[in-house]
Design goal:
The complex is a heterodimer of chains A (285) and B (288).
Chain A (H helix, E strand, L loop, with lengths): L2 H4 L5 H11 L6 E9 L5 E10 L5 E5 L6 H9 L6 E5 L15 E4 L11 H11 L4 H14 L15 H13 L5 E5 L7 H17 L3 E6 L2 H7 L2 E6 L4 E7 L8 H5 L1 H24 L1
Parallel strand pairs in A: 3-7, 3-8, 5-6, 6-7
Antiparallel strand pairs in A: 1-2, 1-4, 8-9
Helix pairs in contact in A: 4-5, 4-6, 5-6, 8-10
Chain B lengths: L1 H6 L4 H7 L3 H35 L10 H46 L1 H16 L2 H11 L3 H26 L3 H9 L4 H39 L8 H10 L3 H30 L11
The chains are: A alpha/beta (285), B mainly alpha (288).
Chain lengths: 285, 288
């Protein structure tokens, strides 16, 4: 039974009021003992519990491939269904299909742009699907493009952009609905090192300005330590949570943080956990 | 050809790479122009060779007329060939349009229901693999008038490439984009109109290009089988008729008009395809 159908269907207005009232005390997302078993019997996730607080956080899901971190992210978004446990959004209203209402922005590993539409229309898409007219939301779309520094490229087509720029468009599209949560599934994994570092900084700057929770799937220790204030380390077979670590370095973080001893300490610590997460996998071979 | 060149604007990087020395750049441009003209130059020499061989060897006109005589015949007989060209073109275009619209609609129906696809697709294949020449006599018996029979034959041939290409195109939408549409709660019509149709466009247009040529072939073949005479006859009948009367230059002139029509159809559809896909699809971006 999925949580979605068991969740209390709250009246939208009531829930909005509740959201403002209890934003800090009640969790934004509450994941309780979630399992995911595929029809062929593979257990992708086993007894995963995680609470995402109402206060904006930058959470990384870190783990070796096959640990179910992407699956967990997709289940949070409602794209995949879990086979046991509950995923609840206590402060959010659901739409009739049981998805949290307009609270989610999703960034895939690929930019996932429509090649036939220009940058503006790609970012406009989520609003268009909600039947907002172009004229009405023009400024909103342009604001979103400005946030990622691409306002001058509104008329360009995806093929004219570099890999990093396409990813920025994808982020602008995810943010255009002003979501509470930005879900990112290894968004920078396919980019080169220099572009990735640049986008890391830009993402942090964005996150600090917005009232936004980011859940960021990655397999890079360095990326997760640099970005997050919380790292959830996951292990594979079955996918489970191994450690829930907090990275207590102040924001804004800059390039100087990357060379600090505090950063190195955290990297060592997180690497240790990741090694432990890999240990079980290596034993099997 | 000029129009094609304008569409094929090279990427800025390519331009930069080509301009180290202006001499080699001009040579490159000259080479490119020559490459574009090559088929015309070759064709001209072939025609000249043909004309010379016919004259030198004194080949009788009823066996093989030279290109100059064919051109003259085309000019003098144009008045009688033109109405036939109009008839053949009209059948071709009507069959093509019905095939294009119907094919796309059927393709959409296929993707919306696995059952419909399972039930109908094998029969679409049967229609495709059965030679139209073999079914044409039946259709001519069944259809009320010959024009309708010709239209059905041409449509039968032109239909399949559109259906199969549209169905493949509609089924090959990027999975992540489908997820994205789900995430934002897109309705089925929204997903069809904003996602599936645009991403099927390159496949559909490729199907159209094949089907345009096939519609013409279907129309001509069916007319050969029907052998309609009188005022309603198309170019195929003119070829038969000229053959009986041993007016070989006139046969060639009619043949030329059919070929020209086919080339025109292909050219127009290619331009349409390039225009629609110009911003995003590799096929419309020219040589790389």
């Amino acid at each position: 039974m999925s949580s979605v159908s068991t969740a209390i269907q709250v009246d939208k207005n009531a829930s909005m009021a509740a959201a403002t009232e209890h934003a800090s005390s009640r969790p934004l997302i509450s994941i309780k003992s979630v399992d995911k078993i595929y029809p062929n019997g593979t257990e992708a996730l086993h007894n995963v519990s995680l609470e995402i607080p109402g206060k904006p956080q930058f959470v990384s899901l870190l783990g070796p491939s096959g640990c179910g971190k992407s699956t967990l992210l997709r289940m949070i978004s409602g794209l995949d269904r879990h086979t046991g446990g509950e995923i609840e959004w206590p402060t959010t209203a659901y739409d009739y299909k049981g998805r949290p209402l307009a609270e989610i922005g999703f960034v895939f590993q690929e930019p996932t742009l429509m090649p036939w539409a220009n940058v503006f229309d790609n970012v406009y898409l989520p609003l268009r699907l909600k039947r907002q007219t172009r004229a009405k939301v023009h400024d909103q779309v342009m604001d979103s493009l400005r946030m990622v520094g691409l306002e001058k490229f509104a008329r360009s087509y995806p093929r004219e952009l570099s890999g990093g720029m396409k990813m920025r468009v994808s982020i602008a599209r995810a943010l255009v609905t002003k979501p509470k949560v930005l879900l990112m599934d290894e968004p920078f994994a396919a980019l080169d090192e220099i572009t990735r570092l640049k986008l890391n900084n830009d993402l942090l700057a964005l996150w600090e300005k917005q009232n936004l929770t980011v859940i960021f799937v990655t397999h890079s220790v360095f990326e997760s330590v640099y970005l997050s204030d919380r790292i959830v380390v996951m292990a594979a077979r079955p996918g489970r949570i191994l450690a829930d670590l907090s990275i207590d370095a102040p924001y804004p973080r800059t390039e100087q943080f990357r060379t600090s001893s505090l950063y190195n300490e955290h990297c060592r610590d997180v690497s240790g956990w990741l090694k432990q997460a890999m240990a079980g996998v290596e034993d099997e071979h | 050809m000029n129009a094609m060149n304008e569409i094929r604007t090279p990427a800025p990087a390519a331009v930069a790479a080509r301009t180290p020395g202006s001499k080699s750049a001009t040579r490159r441009i000259g080479e490119k122009a020559l490459l574009q003209l090559a088929p015309f130059i070759f064709g001209f020499f072939m025609l000249a060779f043909w004309e010379i061989m016919v004259r030198v060897n004194d080949v009788p006109v009823y066996l093989l007329p030279g290109p100059i005589l064919i051109a003259k015949t085309l000019y003098t007989d144009f008045g009688s060939l033109w109405p036939s060209l109009v008839i053949t073109s009209r059948i071709t275009i009507e069959a093509f349009l019905i095939a294009a619209v119907g094919g796309l609609l059927l393709g959409m129906l296929f993707t919306s229901s696995r059952w419909i696809e399972r039930c109908l697709f094998p029969y679409a294949v049967v229609l495709q693999v059965t030679p139209v020449v073999a079914i044409a006599p039946l259709i001519i018996i069944w259809a009320k008038d010959t024009q309708l029979a010709l239209l059905i034959c041409a449509w039968l041939v032109a239909f399949f490439p559109v259906v199969s290409n549209a169905a493949v195109g509609l089924n090959s939408t990027d999975r992540n984009l489908i997820n994205l549409f789900q995430l934002y709660g897109a309705s089925k019509p929204q997903a069809m109109w904003l996602l599936k149709l645009p991403s099927a466009m390159p496949y559909f247009l490729a199907g159209l290009r094949i089907s345009g040529g096939l519609a013409l072939i279907g129309a001509v073949v069916a007319e050969f089988v029907a052998g309609t005479g009188g005022t309603q006859s198309g170019l195929a009948y003119r070829i038969l008729e000229a053959g009986y009367r041993l007016q070989i230059p006139r046969m060639f002139a009619a043949l030329f008009l059919i070929s020209a029509t086919g080339i025109l159809i292909f050219f127009v559809l290619s331009l349409l395809s390039r225009f629609i896909l110009r911003h995003w699809h590799e096929s419309a971006m020219g040589d790389r």
